[in-house]
Amino acid sequence: MKRNNKGSAGREAGRLFLNPQAVIYGLILAFLWTGLIAFFLGFCGFYIRGLGERADTLVLVAGLGGACLGAGAAARRGKNLGWLHGGLVGFAFILLSYLLGFIWERGTGPAAGLLLSRLLWGTALGLLGGMLGVNTGGR
């Protein structure tokens, strides 16, 4: 009797793919989470002396935290390849943040090393959030 492995290979190929809707969903949630975290840190900075002086660091922390949370949501929505969905969300979030920043702050561009290091941090935290998100998804 001849075995037919075509069905299992077809299922395997259909299971391993990138879900662009999950990446977009995670990107939108990353921006929302960043806004909420930045609002909370700004609120705390209003009442805690000295915290407002570190606003640039706090905004960076809020952005990276939002990227990590959005990456986890993208990985849960994608249901597989959490590291890829999360890494793409982290990378795209930092890149879009800088592109949006150019709209409001014309004439100044980030140093290439600073942009590269933040892209690496965003991607790394996106990878971490994606790996955690795909493993904590409701099954």
Could you characterize what this model shows?
- The chain is 78% helix and 0% strand.
- It is built from five helices and no strands.
- It has helices at 6-15, 20-47, 55-78, 82-104, 112-135.
- The radius of gyration is 19 Å and the shape is globular.
- The relative contact order is 0.16.
Order of helices and strands: HHHHH
Specify the structural class: mainly alpha
Number of strands: 0
Please compute the radius of gyration using only Cα atoms.
Answer: 19 Å
Mean pLDDT: 80
- Can you tell me the overall shape? globular
Low-confidence stretches: none
Report how far apart the termini are. 37 Å
Strand content: under 5%
Helical percentage: over 70%
Please give the largest β-sheet.
Answer: none
Enumerate how many helices there are, as a single number: 5
Note the topology.
Blueprint (H helix, E strand, L loop, with lengths): L5 H10 L4 H28 L7 H24 L3 H23 L7 H24 L4
Helix pairs in contact: 2-3, 2-4, 3-4, 3-5, 4-5
Short description:
The protein has 139 residues and is mostly helical.
Labels describing this entry:
139 residues, 5 helices, mainly alpha, 0% strand, globular
